[in-house]
């Protein structure tokens, strides 16, 4: 919604509290203030106990992103997110895993990583038996059920479910090939294509036929070979 919204903090459960004190002149001082129990969002069901948290939440509805990176075009809603982003430029990774050598820029990322050790997958799909370590992974997975493809190309009719796939697709328009072979002049749009190419140098053939001695470097070539055994026609 492009319409600019004027959202204000709604305070509820407010109690007036009177505090009586005595100063050094033995004079009674009476102060009255409000004890705010919660702030309620006027746009959704969100509520919190601190006004600062509500101000940050309101930006979800208004689209306001007041924090701007001085190095790149990144903008965000909170100073904490900006602090974490700046570390992508400085290389600082202060959050370190106590089990392995993993380190990262934010506490949230470390929390998700720890689940790879504990096996915890708290985000469960309501449509199937899949579960995930991060809410973002569940959100992406749900699109396989809903068919939602929120990422749309501005150049052609292509749309997809994940931002990473869109980023790769855009390169088919721009011609960008960021993945370079260290052995020759080959460049590719995706890391997967580079990995496949590297097998021409290493001689690795990970796809092995269970029916004969055939092996190859690419899954598509392997599928064609298997049709000789199964008799399935493309």
From TrEMBL:
GO terms for molecular function: DNA-binding transcription factor activity, RNA polymerase II-specific; RNA polymerase II cis-regulatory region sequence-specific DNA binding; zinc ion binding. Belongs to the hunchback C2H2-type zinc-finger protein family. Belongs to the krueppel C2H2-type zinc-finger protein family. It holds the Pfam family zf-C2H2_16. Residues 39-66, 67-94, 95-122, 123-150, 151-178, 179-206, 207-234 form the C2H2-type domain. SMART domains: ZnF_C2H2 (SM00355). PANTHER family: C2H2-TYPE DOMAIN-CONTAINING PROTEIN (PTHR19818:SF157), ZINC FINGER PROTEIN ZIC AND GLI (PTHR19818). One of its GO terms (biological process) is positive regulation of transcription by RNA polymerase II. This is Putative c2h2-type zn-finger protein. It comes from Triatoma infestans. GO terms for cellular component: nucleus. InterPro entries: GLI_C2H2-zinc-finger, Znf-C2H2_CTCF, Znf_C2H2_sf, Znf_C2H2_type. The keyword Repeat applies. The lineage of its organism: Eukaryota, Metazoa, Ecdysozoa, Arthropoda, Hexapoda. It is found in: Nucleus. Keywords: DNA-binding, Metal-binding, Nucleus, Repeat, Transcription, Transcription regulation, Zinc, Zinc-finger.
